[in-house]
């Protein structure tokens, strides 16, 4: 009698390996998100500069990152830098660099949109009170921007987590790669293993992303009150 595909998950240490792969995915995602939130906020403020040159350069960076597929950027950083500049860079670091560049650009545009949507009198009132530019943004602008920014930022975070599945193509042993290894090792004995393994991976991604989405709804409710 042929083994059921779901049994593959619990043979040996397969499920533990899958969770370890998920840990790699989460680790890369967390670092990329933190870097993107910090640099993206600064980049968004820079994008509102009165200097035409600064706005042009920031817009050029945004459009380049937005148009370029993340997979191409991963290959460019991981394979291109290694071969052309003799730089030894790991797949994990390549992923963090690429997702941080992407997240910074997208987050910056969200911050720019949130800042420019604020009424002008918010800026004028702060300046009238004698606040410095730093104090103006720290105490008046950024707290208001956070409320407008939250839903889009949460959406970006979940997109970044899901897009980390691309790093399997540069050899990073994350959750999808582990799943492929388990499937390949059981391809002949248990042909239906792929359905159960990828189904498990789907549920793991859902388990990570769903609470983040619910947190967004919860925070919006609190702020409205």
From TrEMBL:
NCBIfam families: HEQRo_perm_3TM
Keyword Membrane in record: yes
Top-level taxon of origin: Bacteria
The species this protein was found in: Streptococcus panodentis
Family affiliation: Belongs to the binding-protein-dependent transport system permease family.
Topology term for the membrane: Multi-pass membrane protein
Protein name from the UniProt record: Amino acid ABC transporter permease
PANTHER family membership: ABC TRANSPORTER MEMBRANE-SPANNING PERMEASE-GLUTAMINE TRANSPORT, MEMBRANE COMPONENT OF AMINO ACID ABC TRANSPORTER
Keyword Membrane applies: yes
SUPFAM superfamilies referenced in this protein's UniProt entry, alphabetically: MetI-like
Domain ABC transmembrane type-1 stretches: 22-216
């Amino acid at each position: 009698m042929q083994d059921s595909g779901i049994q593959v998950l619990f043979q040996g240490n397969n499920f533990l390996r899958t969770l370890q792969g998920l840990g790699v995915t989460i680790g890369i995602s967390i670092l990329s998100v933190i870097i993107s939130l910090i640099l993206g906020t600064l980049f968004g403020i820079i994008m509102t500069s009165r200097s035409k040159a600064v706005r042009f350069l920031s817009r050029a960076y945004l459009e380049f990152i937005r148009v370029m597929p993340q997979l191409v950027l991963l290959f460019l950083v991981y394979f291109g830098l290694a071969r052309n500049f003799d730089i030894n860079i790991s797949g994990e670091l390549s992923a963090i660099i690429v997702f941080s560049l992407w997240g910074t650009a997208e987050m910056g545009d969200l911050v720019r949109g949130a800042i420019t949507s604020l009424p002008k009198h918010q800026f004028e009132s702060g300046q009238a009170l004698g606040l410095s530019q730093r104090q103006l943004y720290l105490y008046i602008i950024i707290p208001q921007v956070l409320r407008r920014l939250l839903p889009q930022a949460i959406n970006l975070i979940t997109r970044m987590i899901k897009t980390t599945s691309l790093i399997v193509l540069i050899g990073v042993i994350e959750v999808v790669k582990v799943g492929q290894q388990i499937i390949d090792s059981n391809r002949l004995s248990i042909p239906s293993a792929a359905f159960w393994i990828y189904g498990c991976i789907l549920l793991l991604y859902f388990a990570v992303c769903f609470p983040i989405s619910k947190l967004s709804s919860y925070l919006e409710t609190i702020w409205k009150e």
